[in-house]
Amino acid sequence: MPNSIKRIASMEDIEFFDICEKEQTAATPFLEQEKDDDDSVTDQFWNVANQQNGKGHKIGEESEEEDKIRSKDASEGVGEDNDSSGEIQERHMNNGNNNNNKTMKYADRVQILNLRRNLNQLDNIAKEKDLTIEKAREELSACQLRIEMLTKERECSETKIEEEKEAGNTAAIFHLQAMHRRLCAELGNEKELELKIASMLKENVYEMWQIEIEQGKFGSLREQLEQDEEELERECKERAEQRIQKEKTAARLAERKQQVGKRKEMEACEAYERRHQKVVEDAHRNHEKAVQFLKKSMSRIRQKEAKEELKTQKHMEKRMQAVLSLKNNITSNRETLRTLQVRDKAKALEAKKQEMKMTGAILAEGGDVTKEIFLHKQRVELERQKQEFTEQQKSRKIEIVARILQEEAYVEKQKKHQARAEALRSQGKLQDSLQWRIKTWQYIENACEDPAAAVLQKSWRTPSACSLVDDKSSSVVDFSEKALQDTSYENDDEEANETLAEPEFTGLWSQECNLYKVPKDETDPKPLGASKMEKKIFTENLEKLRSGIIRKQVVSGHEFKGCPFYSKPSLIHFKDFDVGKTYKKKIILINASYSVNFCKLVGVSEHLKDFINIQFDPPGQMSAGMSCEVVVTFKPMINEFLEGKVTFLAQNGSFSIPLKCTTKRCVLALDKELIDFGTHVVGETISRTIILTNRGALGTRFKLQTSAGDNGTCTTAKSSLERMVNPALDGITSEEKASSSPVESSIYENKEQVSPVHTEEVRQTCMVGESQKMENNLGSSHVEQLSQDALITEADLEAENAQSPAEPPPEEAPIEITLGKVTEGEVGPFSSIKLQIIFTPSVPGDVHAEFEIAFDNPNCKPLHFAVIGVSVDVPVWVPNPNVDLKICMYDRLYQDCIIIRSRAKAALRLKFEVCKELSNHMELLPKTGYIQAQSSFSVQLKFLPRHSLPEDAGKYFDRETRVLEVPMTIMIADKFVEIQPSDGFGILLPLESLNLDIIFKASKAKEYSFELTCKSEINRQFKLSCKAVGVHPPLELSHSLVKFAATALNDVSTATLYVINAHVSLNCFTHAVPRIGKGEIAPVGPTSFEFLVPEDSPVTIMPSVGTVLPGKKCLIQVYFRPVLSEQLIREEAVQMLCRADAKRTMLKKIHESEMQKRKDETVAGKKDGKKPSFAALRQPLRVRSSKHAAASSGFEPPKPEEIKTNSEEYIAAQYSLIRNFTGTFERYIIPCFVASGDIDEKKGSENLKYSPYNTLYLELHCPAVAPSVVVTSNNGKNIVNFGEVAVGHRVIKRITIQNISQEQLALGFSILNPNGPFLLVSPVGTLEPGENQFLFISFCPNESKLFFETLDIRSIKATLTLSIIGQGVAPSIACSVEGEVLDMGYVIAKEKVTSTFKIQNTSTLPLRYSIKLESLSQTRDKEQQRLPFFITSPPGWTDFVGTQNYSGLSVFNIFPVEGVIEPGKSQDFTVTFSPDHASLYYSDCLKVVLFGKEIAREIWLKGAARNHMMFVEGGDPLDVPLESLAITSPMSEEAAKGELEEPAKSLLLSLEYIQGETSGTPAVRELKIGAIRTAQFASKKNVEFSLDSLPVLQQKGFTIEPVKGTVDRGQIKCISVSWVPPADFDPDHPLMVAAVLTLKGDIKESYKVLFIARAVCT
């Protein structure tokens, strides 16, 4: 018991220490205030605490050693505690006496806490000891009670023992004695336990007395402790009051500071208004001055316009004169051509006369006319060739001299240019290319006034497109001018490179380099080696040789068609080559023909021979499937795109492998073409990135800038000078910029931004020089338009210059979309660069900007992308919407401050919420706050991530990147009414009305009633009473807005949402319940919904109708499939027909006008003797053409409804619309009606009742774009219909797809069912822009049913879905042959007989059939080498192929052998039986094979051949149905004539009589006697038969009918034989009787018939 007391005390000590530690922790904030003043006392406190902890541990150690030392006195621990308590009491008393009048120190408070702990511990020990004593007393009383009971039982047992002894019951005595002994033992044990419990009770009572004595010692100490605790509590209250006073003082100071700030702000506003008023007044004065300057500028502009108009009229007169002169030159040239034609005819006639004279002379001399004329022609030809060679040498000499002079002139020009550049640099003159260009064109204008100078000048300048036309038109005037122009045209490319250096004009001294040159067709040397005739002969011989080499390849009756060899890879492609390097590629040629083939290298394309080398060793004979290697070496010498082929010659034809060599190029693309920032609040700053990727092997520099037509947003602000100068330069120098790259054009613009000092000079010189240049290069219309544009531009510039000194520049719109730091740089090969776009909304509304990325590489087109965003003017906004806490660790606290700003003019109450998933990890403090008008408010963000964060965060946490993105919501509480626009503030002018929108948003389902007050500046108030009803629908939508991705036409986008029924209880006090205002609560139960989708919309909702149970949700899938409407396609078809008719009408009118013009010229020429001028004909033609245009063409376009969907016009219109589709954006709002109840429980016409107030709305944003890949085959339909195909048969269809986008596409395909009938044979990897590729899809059904699958062709932009349909049909036929045997009957040997049967196609598809005979099968020879079937096969098995002809020809012939049977049709087949010798076992198997695979029917063909006209059938077989391998020679005609009777043959006829119970059934058999219909044996028309031994047969019980008779040709008669057992018949011995059957026809035949009869009992 003492040990248990000690253990209890120890446990109470430990609990007491824990309580003390908690009290110390709670008191820490109050104790820390005096920590700095009492450092020494603090050390003392920690020493005391450590001592107490040490004691606690000591007590714990004693409790652990309790089992080992049980006899130790338990009072030691109590004594130690009492001693320590005494020491603390004395110390506390001393401190209390010394510090009665002072504030309690830190050490005193610690002692109070320790004393309270010790007293509580002592009280607890006393309570435990008291409880132990009570338990011991209870145990003692229980033990005494058990002793009394055992004593009574012992006495009772002793009494019973005495009674049993008297009775003499020995067994009972033994039992009672054993029980007596047990009771005595238990009684002794209980007495010992009583003594132990009594002693333990005494010890506990003693210890309890000691504890009570100790408690009495601490009575005064308890009273003092209570006083100290009251003093401590009073001090705490005083400190709290002092802190409250300090906070109030600080609040008053802050309020004063705020008032001072407001006063300063009002003063600043007044100062701003004064400055603004001053600026407005200055602007008015500047405007008045600007009006004056504008009037002066307009007058100058009008004067210049008049001058330009006069100049234009003069120029038009010059052009009219040039046209007239051109007309006259054309007329003179025509006359010259006629004269030349007449002269040529005269020369030809004279040559013919000379030839005739020569022929006559040669004939007169007796010579060979043909030979002499041929020699004469050869001499003439030789002289002509000599003359040509001489002229060629002269022209080449001239060319060499011209080149030398040209090079010298170029060197001279370069030297002078360098000297001039150095002189200008030393003098510090302006070195602008624009100045040089202006001076050059001024000189050209002056020089062109002289015709001779103009001609010489054309020899060095680079002509434009228009100038070439003018030069060619005027070249007819002078032949020398034509020669010079031809020379300049030939050297355009060379001179373009020469004139790139600046200055462009080098002087007239270099004109001698452009002398007359012989045209290229004259300077081209004649090919050496062979003449044209020899080449022609060589080509013909080569074709003959090839025709002999190439031969058809036929294997097993199948001719091979196609490419004899397959190459791997199929294309030899050298990508991204460098000039000078050597590249090698190995290709493998595989023999794809049916048998052995050869392969020979023919060569490569002619233009690739200098770069391509082929290493190929002919392998000789190659079996089918074998391969050989070819090594192709490519050494590029020029940096150009090369394409050709490598040609080979095989045994059955030539084939080629395409070869392509591509240079390094830039393949640039953006990851997106549209950046949608979404909706953001004004004042925020959001950034997005767009990735520029170069997939090519050539790098280039890029520059990111705004598009030319985009004026909405700009990334950089230009100065006023740049804004004035750049438009003029852009308009004038558009021709140069169009020919250069975008980057060069931007650099050119930067170069032309001159300083303000030279602005006027540059503008004037630019206008004069460029206008002169355009006049020389363009026609009158172009010059006229340019001069007008130039005048307008100059006038605008003068007006701006006049306005700029006095008027400040207007305020520009705020720039909301800007670029990041990286706007230009270099993108390397196979790399990418991220470009940053920044959106800073400042004005509410939609923002749109377009940017372009220009490149230095001229082959790279600029890339464009658009940026859109929406700015929302919310009264509360966050300057920094993104809070980045960087890298965080678990179980660590992270904090940040979020600043919220308000632009509202009244205070707002805000609520801050974190999503439910992160509520245990993240917190916003405070959760509710007030933000004052036009001020800011800070919220503290606390983030304490725990280890359960990945599971709790769900979708907000990325497990791969370990990044957490959490949305936080800031709500404006109690704001259910909003006034727009401008939050209800504004200015109302006199007699003006203003419409305001009152926006109400209910937070609860209740009735709202409130008033809106409109106040004016004159303190007038207008009140507006408003009422509203808040509705809480029974169902909810998980998403009320669905934004689909950009979806291509005929593609499908899918979105998923849920309809949720959260109504599970009618208790409105625990949660919000669905109701309308204060109406009845919606019942808890199944609730139905229905989405009402508009008709003809591209949106489908599945399911649109359903029922949701309480606490459940229903999955809803929304499909968006944009398609072109049929009405739009029909209208486009009508427009296309109209355009086609208009084009035909226009061409017809042009043709008619030309014919009329020729007639008018002819008539005018006959009357006046000369042709009318072009100007005279021009006006009448215009009048006539206008009249014809006004006349109706007679074409009436069809109505759109008349266009059929399967017509060519409809398909062409659909294809045109898809290609030209620019994209659409549609917005749909789908209502969802809600009703209580289950839709499935309603029957018939019953409808659920619903309220329109519970309607939900689903908003859909549906953008549609043009597809990147389209189907061009099958009229552009995306459905591949195989139709009906026989089961087991394979059909392949080809589908053509085209890339209609502007970039290369990598294609991917969805997986078709591997166990299904459809198979994609040839997938396509990539599609170039505009490229067509073929897809091959096969269909092989394995059962008779309808199959359907979809094949998705995926690209980066969109997905093209092909629907594949096929019907598997089991082919079925019906045959007219009953059973499986077609018996041809008997025929005379070497004669033939025919039979016809019919096969009908009972299926729904055409059947391709073929008829095969078993005797003609390829395996027949092997089967004949085996043992006969009657030896090896089981009984009942029959070989279908029997006796065959000795000649090797087939016994049975069938016609037709193959063909096609249409559905429901039938085909007649004729079987011809033509044996060449006598045999009874002719047979064969006819198989009807469908589609070359399936055997649909087998027919056994049978026939027999005889040498004579009679035959007998019937009886049991006596031999095998096979002939001997030995061929017996037939009997000769002499022998046949000498012996007209053949030896007797045997027939066996077995009969069985069946004996029943009462009577028997006679046995019956038949013998058939027949006569063959034949043209032979004309002397004998019928066959006679007779059977002898009739009495014997009748005696034995046989009955035969008839016994004799005749059979006509082609007829068969039956002899019936029946048998009944006679009276003396022995059943154990069968009856055997023989008779002779005699046949008389062309010969006499005898048959020995053996009758065997037996009786059988049933």
Which secondary structure elements does this structure contain, and how are they paired or packed?
Layout: H1 2-26, H2 28-31, H3 39-64, H4 75-98, H5 106-167, H6 170-217, H7 219-365, H8 369-427, H9 433-448, H10 451-457, H11 465-474, H12 479-490, H13 492-498, H14 520-523, H15 532-549, E1 554-555, E2 558-559, E3 565-568, E4 572-577, E5 583-591, E6 599-604, E7 612-615, E8 627-634, E9 642-650, E10 653-663, E11 668-670, E12 674-681, E13 686-694, E14 700-706, H16 720-732, H17 734-739, H18 742-751, H19 759-777, H20 780-803, E15 817-819, E16 824-827, E17 831-839, E18 845-855, E19 863-872, E20 876-877, E21 894-902, E22 908-914, E23 922-925, E24 928-931, E25 936-943, H21 949-953, E26 957-958, E27 963-964, E28 968-973, E29 977-980, E30 997-1000, E31 1007-1015, E32 1021-1029, E33 1031-1032, E34 1036-1037, E35 1041-1043, E36 1047-1048, E37 1053-1060, E38 1075-1076, E39 1087-1091, E40 1099-1102, E41 1105-1108, E42 1113-1120, H22 1126-1168, H23 1174-1190, H24 1208-1219, E43 1224-1236, E44 1256-1265, E45 1269-1271, E46 1279-1286, E47 1291-1299, E48 1305-1306, E49 1308-1309, E50 1318-1320, E51 1326-1327, E52 1332-1339, E53 1346-1354, E54 1359-1369, E55 1373-1375, E56 1381-1388, ...
